[in-house]
Amino acid sequence: MIYLLKYFPVAISILKTQGLNALTRRVAKKLFSPPQKNHLPEVHYSVALQHHPLRFQESVDPEISIIIPVYNKTLYTFTCLKSIHESSGSNVYEVIIVDDASNDDTAQMLSNITGISVIRNVENKGFIYSSNRGINAARGKYIVLLNNDTIVTRGWLDALKHTFSHFPDAGLAGAKLVYPDGKLQEAGGVVWQDASAWNYGRYDDPDKPEYSYCRAVDYCSGACLMIRRQDLTDLGPFDEYYAPAYYEDTDLAFRVRKAGKTVYYQPGAVVVHFEGISSGIDVSKGTKQYQVINHKKFFNRWKDTLKFHRSNGDSPHFEKERNVKKRVLVIDALVLKPDNDSGSLRMFNLLAVFQNLGYKVSFIAANEPGYHDVYTRQMQMNGVECFYKPYPESVPELLKSHGHLYDVVLLSRVNIAEKYIDDARKYCINAMILFDTVDLHFLREQRQAEINQDKLLLATARMRKQQELTTARKADKTLLVSPVEIELFKQVAPDVPVGLLSNIHRNQETVFGYQQRKDILFIGGFEHLPNVDAMEFFIKEIFPTLHALKPDIKLLIVGSHLPDKIAAHASPHIIIKGFVSDIKPIFGRIRLSIAPLRYGAGVKGKINTSMTYGVPVVATSVAAEGMKLVHDKDILIADEPEDFARQIIRAYDNEQLWTHLSNSGKANIEKHFSFSVAERQLSEILLHQQNTGGTVDQAVNA
Q1: Which of 72, 70, 85 is CA-nearest to residue 119?
Q2: Is residue 669 part of a domain?
Q3: CA 628 to CA 513: how far, in whole Å?
Q4: Per-residue H/E/C for 406-458
């Protein structure tokens, strides 16, 4: 019976605003809808059986202040502190406990915890007062408001902090809250028109895609919130209007939004919440009764804002992100690994460009259907909705269930596009279908066949050309990455609408100049065969000449999936690095980058990346193709081995030339490959779709 009490205020609200029939439908749906198939994680969190000493690292200048109001419940508070101690990584933080006149052994437990600050209220003043006392004592750039009946998990602080660095408009960030048994408690909150609040996803599987990407929300529960201290100073802390508790977090979220900033739900921060430990669950007595009282107060304060919200229970899957007006689905072959290969980096940045243009972005990797703990999570933390098994089991299943929602469907690479374009046409009836070539595969294979004098590969290239042209004719528009490929496509398929959408990069700070640098670098993923060929060519035919002319130069080779035949060339002068997760230190000290490709197509990310760091490039004409690079101005170009070696020495020994190339390379990025350029290119491509309407407003999984 107590369990049912929590639905009573909602039921009354629906009855008043929508009538008896609407209430009857909601009750019937709740009682008689077949249960959804869940794949709940097999986890269970529990409270410590006893407390023991903990030692926190003290900081004179903490970046983050974690504020925890407590009233009794010693072991819950200790469990919370222990989880912070174990799961907060390398972040520099302080912990401020505000003891609201506890009368159990809380004081004794806290006396055994060193490195934290403890503030004690003389009398019990309630949650809001205690939280605000902690806020006033905080020193960090960021403030985290955390309930004591929580367990934080690994990476929680990094994820919350990432929200503010990735989203410039972020004003408040909240965590994914789960119950101790692993069920979802809240994936952000919705406030309905009548001011009743709804925990989106309650009791469902927390790993479902719809609960696992960062998005703008009405509010997040005060069980775990992060906000900039300056913003809290400007806005004011929790409002005593709602004392002793309830709706203060929702009110703060609405004040953040009124100030022009965004409240984000950040699922990368997972926090276990033992709901109801502090105030119980019975809304008819104790502190919990203020949930009903403050509901009325909140409505009276914010009714002019709430009139733009939907009625209680109306289209919840749209109301959870009511500001979304446009949706794009991207189907690629593999999970994007932007630190592994240029194609992944381009698509990773393209997803951000779609977001900058106001699209909700969804992504599925057709040939890698599982969840990747690093790269899928990274995309989700950036606000990309990622689909993976078993939600759904396949791309066709996704297109069938969700296809009507999308305004744009982008199919990346010809094998993927060919396989799914017919289903996209069938189910995505409102969508513009884009075929993103990434590069013209047939052109790359044709050039490889000509170099290797391989007739079988040449025949394969001809079949690939037919495959790409046939797929392009089924799409609304085909995306190409260089003006060279645009012109080629116009010659072979003048009937196919095409658009230019090249690589996307952001210039990096160049800290060290010519004198502080040495050696040369090749960077590239070695699953891409032109890179393997380029290194074999360079090591066997160019490097001997270079070494004879300049014996002190070393070659560094960086890239994922390094083959044994390349690794076998390791020597004191050829340094095999393989995959490097952080390339900034290498680019910060390397003097030159090389791109000795003998065949290929598209635009070369290794050249773009080098130029973003201000590192001059020596390349072949094939490598520099389609990038609007001029020899001796932006880049040095050579195709013959001896000439290539001498061009390296030219730039290596001439500080004036090196500096000129460094500056010109960055200018080339800004002019042709920046985010602003990509936004303009994509806007032009999507212009037809924007003129023909938007997404229909239909419930997901209705």
Answers
A1: 70
A2: yes
A3: 25
A4: CCEEEEECHHHHHHHHHHHHHHCCCCEEEEECCCCHHHHHHHHHHHHCCHHHH
Return d(Cα 464, Cα 417) in angstroms, integer. 13
What is the distance between the terminal CA atoms of the chain, rounded to a whole angstrom? 29
Q: How many CB atoms lie within 10 A of CB 546?
A: 23
Rounded CA-CA distance 601/596 in Å is 14
Whether 175 and 73 map to the same domain: the answer is yes
How many other CB atoms are found less than 10 A from the CB of residue 386?
24
466 burial class (0-12, 13-18, 19+ CB within 10 angstroms)? exposed
Q: What is the pLDDT of residue 246?
A: 87
- CB burial of 201-217 (b: ≥16 within 10 Å; e: otherwise) equals beebbbbbbbbbbbbbb
C-alpha angle 591/593/596, rounded to 5°?
145
- Measured CA to CA, the distance from residue 9 to residue 19 in angstroms comes to 14
In one-letter notation, the amino acid at residue 510 is T
Looking up residue 408, the CATH number of its domain turns out to be: 3.40.50.11930
Q: Are residues 345 and 261 in the same domain?
A: no
Examine the pLDDT at 206 and tell me if it is beyond 80: yes
Torsion on CA atoms 416, 418, 424, 430, rounded to nearest 10: 110
559 pLDDT band, cuts 50/70/90, is very high
Residue 75 lies inside a defined structural domain of this protein: yes
Pick the closest to residue 140 from 79, 64, 80, 83 (CA basis): 64
What is the distance of C-alpha 545 from the center of its chain?
A: 45
Asked if residue 373 belongs to a domain, the reply is: yes
Residues 6+ away with beta carbon under 8 Å from 59: 92, 93, 94
Q: Which of these three, 500, 533, 552, is where a domain ends?
A: 500
pLDDT tens figures, 516-552: 999 999 999 999 999 999 999 999 999 999 999 999 9
Which are the contacts of 530, defined by CB distance < 8 A and separation ≥ 6? Answer: 444, 448, 597, 598, 599, 600
User: Cα–Cα distances in Å, from 346 out to 328, 351, 412, 438, 439?
Assistant: 17, 9, 11, 9, 11
Task: Please give the backbone phi and psi of residue 564, each rounded to the nearest 5 degrees, phi first.
Answer: -60, -35
On whether residue 43 sits in a domain, the answer given is no
Compute the distance between CA of residue 658 and CA of residue 617 in angstroms, rounded to an integer: 10
d(CA 665, CA 661): 6
Nearest Cα residue to 581 out of 607, 558, 604, 562: 558
Q: How many whole angstroms separate alpha carbon 145 and alpha carbon 252?
A: 12
Residues 198 and 135 in one domain: yes
Q: Which domain holds residue 221?
A: 55-319
The verdict on 463 and 552 lying in the same domain is: no
Distance CA 537, CA 619 (A): 13
Name the residue with tokens 């290539």: 644
CATH of the domain at 94: 3.90.550.10
401: left (phi over 0), alpha (psi -120 to 50) or beta: alpha
Range 54-59 contact pairs with CB under 8 angstroms and sequence separation of 24 or more: 54/81, 54/82, 54/85, 54/112, 54/113, 54/114, 55/113, 55/114, 55/115, 56/85, 56/95, 56/113, 56/114, 56/115, 56/116, 57/115, 58/94, 58/115, 59/92, 59/93, 59/94
The domain boundary residue, chosen from 302, 319, 336: 319
* CB-neighbour burial class of residue 370 (10 A; exposed 0-12, middle 13-18, buried 19+): exposed
Helix axes 655-672, 605-612, angle to 10 degrees: 110
pLDDT in tens, 299-316: 999 999 999 999 988 888
DSSP 604: -
pLDDT in tens, 653-686: 999 999 999 999 999 999 999 999 999 999 999 9
CATH number of the CATH domain containing 644 = 3.40.50.2000
Cα–Cα distance measured from residue 337 to residue 343, given in angstroms and rounded to the nearest whole number: 9
- Is 72 in the same domain as 188? yes
